[in-house]
Amino acid sequence: MGIHRLNHVVLYVRDVARTTAFYTDVLDFRVTISMPGRAAFLQAPDSTNDHDIGLFQLGADAGDSPAGRSTVGMYHIAWEVGTLTDLEDAARRLTEAGALVGASDHGTTKSLYAHDPDGLEFEVVWLIPAHLLDDTAITSGRTGVRPLDIAREKARYGADTRGGLGVSVPLGVTV
Predict the structure, then answer these.
(1) What's the average model confidence in pLDDT over 129-155?
(2) Distance CA 141, CA 160 (A)
(3) What is the pTM of this model?
(4) Which of 26, 42, 30 lies closest to 97, judged by CA?
(5) What is the DSSP letter of 45?
(6) Scanning 43, 75, 76, 128, which has the fewest C-beta atoms within 10 Å of its C-beta?
(7) How do beta strands 53-57 and 121-127 pair?
């Protein structure tokens, strides 16, 4: 089976207009299809997908998801950004929106964690490109999670170094 990437995610939300506004205002997604009061389909800024998120409205009385507390379910979805400058901008915007709930250094990945208006968690991540991976980055992720220091990472890897090359982005691909 040749699965090679995640194409989209579908979320049940209380208020499709509120959630659409969050993803468009904070993360620059754009609406590709809107069915007011029922559903919306959103595309990430640099995506070639028809849509990256589908939103379906349940209404104001819908309860919180118990996934991870009392039931199985998905923990979070993750979106990759191109540079540490992009990650820093995401951190600022998520903080301003009151959505940022964590920032972690996993060694080979640098991650932000946030909640959307319904409390559904997502991650925004920058991956060290393959040509810059070293033993320190690889082994530090295996020994634990550290707090993320974006300024330190920008000094080490470069603010505008394209992340994920040779990892999530094939070498030779123009981005």
Answers:
(1) 91
(2) 22
(3) 0.93
(4) 26
(5) T
(6) 75
(7) unpaired
Name residue, tokens 């468009």: 24
Helix, strand, coil percent content, the chain, rounded in steps of 5: 25, 30, 45
Residue 125: exposure state from Cβ atoms within 10 A (0-12, 13-18, ≥19): buried
Q: Fill in the amino acid letter for 71.
A: T
Residue located via tokens 């659409």: 20
Structure tokens at 167: 């990892």
Q: Helix, strand or coil for residue 134? A: coil
Which residues, other chains included, contact 1 with Cβ-Cβ below 8 Å and sequence gap of 6+? Answer: none
Radius of gyration of the chain measured on its C-alpha atoms: 17
Q: Locate tokens 């920058």: which residue?
A: 126
Q: What confidence tens digit (pLDDT) does each residue in 52-90 have?
A: 999 999 999 999 999 999 999 999 999 999 999 999 999
